[in-house]
C-alpha cells in the first residue's frame, strides 16, 4: 500500500483518504441494496401470493381484534374507527417483530458468506432492517384503503409519519446490532427474544393507546420507545394521540439504543467471526 502523501508542512494529506472512503461507502451501500433485493426475491420467488403475505398477517390480526373489541366486548380503549387505530400500530409492529426475529440469525443463516465476503459486517443486519422496512411500505395501501372506506379523516399530523418511519428504522437497526452478535455466543437468546417479543406486543400501545394505561402503568409507556413511535403513526388520523413529550423521549431512546447497539457490535464482531 502506498504511503499517504504529506504536504510541505509535514501533515498527512487528508484528500487521499477521503477520496478512498467514497468508493468504499458506495460499495457498502450497493452491497446492502443487493443483499436486500436478494432477501426479498428469495422470500417471494416461490410464493404465489408474493408480497401479499407480508400484509395478510397484520390484516387478519387487525380484523380479529376489531371483531373482539367492537362486536364481542364493549371497547373502552382506542379511538374510532378502531380498525385504523389498530392498523396504524400493527403494520409497523410487523416490521419490528420481523426485523428483530430475523436479526437473531443474521450471521448464523449465511455463515459461509459472512466469512468469505469482505464487506462491513453491519450490512448483514442492515439488509434485514431494509427488507422488512420495504415490506412495511408495501403494506401501506391496505391502510389507505381501510381509511377511505371507514371515513377516517387525515390531519396535519400525517407529517409525523415519515419521522416515525425513520425512528423505527433506527430502533430496529440498533436492536439488531445489539442482539445479532450476542446470539452467536448465547444461542438461547434466540428463543428468549421470541418470548420477549410476545410480551412486548401486549406491553406496547397497539390494541390500546398510551393514554389508556392506568396511572400505575404509565411508566411503561415512557420506557418503551414504541409508545412515541406508534403515536406518530397515529397522529395523522387521531390528533388526540399526539404527546410531544412522549415522542421526544422515544426519539432519544431510539438514538441511545442505536449507539449502544453499534458499540456492542463493534466490540464483539471480531469474536463473532472467530466463533463462526
UniProtKB/TrEMBL annotation:
It comes from the Bacteria. It is found in: Cell membrane. It comes from Leucobacter coleopterorum. Coiled coil: none annotated. Keywords: Antibiotic resistance, Capsule biogenesis/degradation, Cell membrane, Membrane, Sugar transport, Transmembrane, Transmembrane helix, Transport. It is a multi-pass membrane protein. Residues 49-268 form the ABC transmembrane type-2 domain. InterPro entries: ABC2_TM, ABC2_TM_bact-type, ABC_2_transport. This is Transport permease protein. The keyword Manganese does not apply. PANTHER family: CAPSULE POLYSACCHARIDE EXPORT INNER-MEMBRANE PROTEIN CTRC, INNER MEMBRANE TRANSPORT PERMEASE. Belongs to the ABC-2 integral membrane protein family. The chain crosses the membrane at residues 48-68, 80-101, 122-148, 154-183, 195-211, 242-265.
Amino acid at each position: 500500500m502506498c504511503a499517504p502523501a504529506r504536504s510541505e508542512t509535514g501533515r498527512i494529506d487528508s484528500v487521499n483518504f477521503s477520496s478512498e472512503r467514497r468508493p468504499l461507502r458506495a460499495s457498502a451501500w450497493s452491497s446492502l441494496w443487493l443483499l436486500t433485493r436478494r432477501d426479498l426475491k428469495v422470500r417471494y420467488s416461490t410464493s404465489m401470493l408474493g408480497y401479499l403475505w407480508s400484509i395478510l398477517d397484520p390484516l387478519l390480526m387487525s380484523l380479529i381484534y376489531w371483531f373482539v373489541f367492537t362486536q364481542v366486548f364493549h371497547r373502552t380503549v382506542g379511538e374510532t374507527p378502531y380498525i385504523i387505530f389498530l392498523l396504524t400500530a400493527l403494520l409497523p409492529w410487523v416490521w419490528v417483530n420481523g426485523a428483530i426475529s430475523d436479526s437473531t440469525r443474521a450471521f448464523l443463516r449465511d455463515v459461509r458468506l459472512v466469512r468469505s465476503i469482505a464487506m462491513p459486517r453491519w450490512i448483514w443486519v442492515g439488509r434485514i432492517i431494509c427488507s422488512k422496512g420495504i415490506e412495511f411500505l408495501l403494506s401501506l395501501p391496505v391502510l389507505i384503503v381501510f381509511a377511505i372506506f371507514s371515513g377516517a379523516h387525515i390531519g396535519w399530523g400525517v407529517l409525523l409519519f415519515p419521522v416515525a418511519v425513520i425512528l423505527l428504522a433506527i430502533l430496529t437497526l440498533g436492536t439488531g446490532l445489539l442482539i445479532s452478535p450476542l446470539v452467536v455466543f448465547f444461542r438461547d437468546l434466540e428463543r428468549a427474544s421470541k418470548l420477549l417479543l410476545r410480551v412486548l406486543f401486549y406491553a406496547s400501545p397497539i390494541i390500546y393507546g398510551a393514554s389508556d394505561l392506568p396511572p400505575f402503568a404509565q411508566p411503561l409507556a415512557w420506557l418503551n420507545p414504541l409508545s412515541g413511535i406508534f403515536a406518530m403513526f397515529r397522529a395523522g388520523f387521531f390528533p388526540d394521540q399526539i404527546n410531544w413529550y412522549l415522542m421526544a423521549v422515544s426519539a432519544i431512546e431510539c438514538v441511545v439504543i442505536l449507539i449502544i447497539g453499534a458499540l456492542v457490535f463493534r466490540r464483539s464482531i471480531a469474536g463473532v467471526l472467530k466463533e463462526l
